[in-house]
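Attaching the record inline, Q. Sequence:
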Amino acid sequence: MIPKRCIKLSDRKHIDLPMVGLGTYPITGDVGKEAIKTAINLGYRMFDTAVAYGNETIVGEAIGETLRECNYLTREDFFIISKLSGSYHRSGLVEKCCQMSVDRLGLDYVDLYLMHTPVALMAEDYCTEGRPHPNAIDNTVEPTEAWLGLERCYQEGLCRSIGVSNFNADQIATLISNTAIVPAVNQIECSIGFNQKSLRKFCRQQNILVMGYAPLGKQKLPFLNHDLLQRIARTHGKTAAQIDEGVVPIVKSANCSRQKENADIFDFKLTAQQLNELDALTGSQ
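Structure, as predicted:
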């Protein structure tokens, strides 16, 4: 079973979440639903979706069907993440977007609701699942306005925790200075080839958990084939893709064997020397 860790919330509560999650983009349709159910059978309990992915409905169906088919899992065993649409950053619209996500998932709440991006899009009703999002950016809407809406979603019980995605340190600092709740999570692209060391350090200082998507890198092969990474992997009896960077990874695969490999990363720990070697390889970003 995938182990858990806790995240602290600003009101001194904490919640537990699995140490690895399955990213569901671009998993869709009946094949996607079966892939999610396969992941559940392998022990995955955290699933990451978003309005923009167009698959909240099938994620919810996979979880709902699993709960009806087995007698050893409950809703509380799952940690479900969804994300605010960029076109819903305005006051009064954030709660609407969150409620629609909850409804599509067939749940009473989501465990973590993220602002998908600090960038607001033009105010059109693009929150219909799977509908293309506009590219027009609306610079009149500050991220703080959307964050205040996320705070209301949290206070109303639509979500158990709130956070951000794709935010830099300055953008997070602005939120912290102007709002009541510190983000519990910052979900960012993070891999050995793009380690975001300085941003991770800032988040750690603010007690913000870092989740890393694309943990293998968007250009996977160059670093996975590097001699250093291969050597460290052999030392621990792992593949290069399983080397852990100390970030909660959001892995993406509809393939059963890859899902299993991605979850099998908790029986070893990198040494200080190995971590330093990896830092020297990728630089301090």
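DSSP finds ten helices and ten strands in the chain. The chain has one domain: 6-280.

More tomorrow.
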